[in-house]
Amino acid sequence: MQGVTVVDHPLVQHKLTILRNKETSTAGFRRLLREISLLLGYEVTRELELTTTTIQTPLQEMQAPTLEGKKLVFASVLRAGNGLLEGLLDLVPAARVAHVGLYRDHDTLEAVEYFFKAPGDLADRLVIVVDPMLATANSAIAAIDKLKERGATNLRFLCLLAAPEGVERFRKAHPDVPIVTAAIDDHLNDKGYIVPGLGDAGDRMYGTK
Ligand code: PRP
Ligand code: URA
């Protein structure tokens, strides 16, 4: 599918299976989400631009590759986005962070905003929006609407699991924003849950409900 990358690396798929398993503990779920975020983060940063800098190795001077431009921004869609954020910050420690607080209204499935804080100069930075679940896509679309309103123009969306319905809606709303995911599942159920899915990512991460 255009604009959508499914990361089929064996380690990603293995860890995803353990995340899906309802017997996996809260501690195990958090640890695996952090591990898998490193592998997904590798993929979503694949096209970062490089420049060169002059360094001195112990043997000689060389022109060595280094990341170009301003530090990127990880925009975490709260709460569950934080499960991916921590590993991503291990990968790119100098990254800036935006927090977008949204919850899904259980009846309407609309995203309700309760918090937003982001670096002021989003226009100059690559913004990678992170949330493990893309279900109806209401949350992802609202988060990206808000980030664009605040100036972001260069965005990517990183998730763990997506529903085909959500991917379609997201691509219509934000065709300029590529999606990286570990899997696209079968369908959404009538309560807006991804099937087979992994349940409620926030609840499984934090042991709530
Ligand atoms: C979950 C998930 C996404 C959203 C996806 O968050 O982390 O943000 O649902 O569903 P959608 O694509 O239909 O919008 P939730 O609202 O349950 O909040 P939480 O992360 O605080 O648990
Ligand atoms: N949010 C989740 O955490 N899980 C789903 O299956 C759908 C939305």
What would you note in describing this structure?
Its cofactor is Mg(2+). Helices cover 33% and strands 30% of the residues. By secondary structure, it is of the alpha/beta class. The chain has one domain: Rossmann fold. Helix 3 (81-91) links the parallel strand 4 (73-78) and strand 5 (96-104). Bound molecules: 1-O-pyrophosphono-5-O-phosphono-alpha-D-ribofuranose and uracil (URA). Uracil binds at residues 133, 135, 192-194, 197, 200-202.
Characteristics:
Rossmann fold, binds 1-O-pyrophosphono-5-O-phosphono-alpha-D-ribofuranose, binds uracil, alpha/beta, 6 helices, 209 residues, 3-stranded parallel sheet, single chain, 7-stranded mixed sheet, globular
CATH fold-level assignment: Rossmann fold
Order of helices and strands: EHHEEEHEEEEHEEHEEEEH
Return residue spans where pLDDT drops below 50 for at least 5 consecutive residues.
none
Q: Report strand order across the widest sheet.
A: 1-11-9-7-4-5-6
CATH class type: Alpha Beta
Number of helices: 6
Instruction: Give helix % range.
Output: 25-40%
Radius of gyration: 18 Å
Summarize the main sheet. 7 strands, mixed
Instruction: Enumerate the distinct ligands.
Output: 1-O-pyrophosphono-5-O-phosphono-alpha-D-ribofuranose, uracil
Note the beta-strand portion.
Answer: 25-35%
The overall pLDDT average reads: 97
CATH architecture: 3-Layer(aba) Sandwich
Silhouette: globular
Can you lay out the helices and strands and say which pair or pack?
Layout: E1 4-6, H1 10-20, H2 26-44, E2 50-56, E3 61-67, E4 73-78, H3 81-91, E5 96-104, E6 111-117, E7 126-130, E8 133-134, H4 138-149, E9 154-158, E10 161-162, H5 164-173, E11 179-181, E12 183-184, E13 187-188, E14 194-195, H6 201-206
Parallel strand pairs: 1-11, 4-5, 4-7, 7-9, 8-10, 9-11, 10-12
Antiparallel strand pairs: 2-3, 5-6, 13-14
Helix pairs in contact: 1-2, 2-3
Bound molecules: 1-O-pyrophosphono-5-O-phosphono-alpha-D-ribofuranose and uracil.
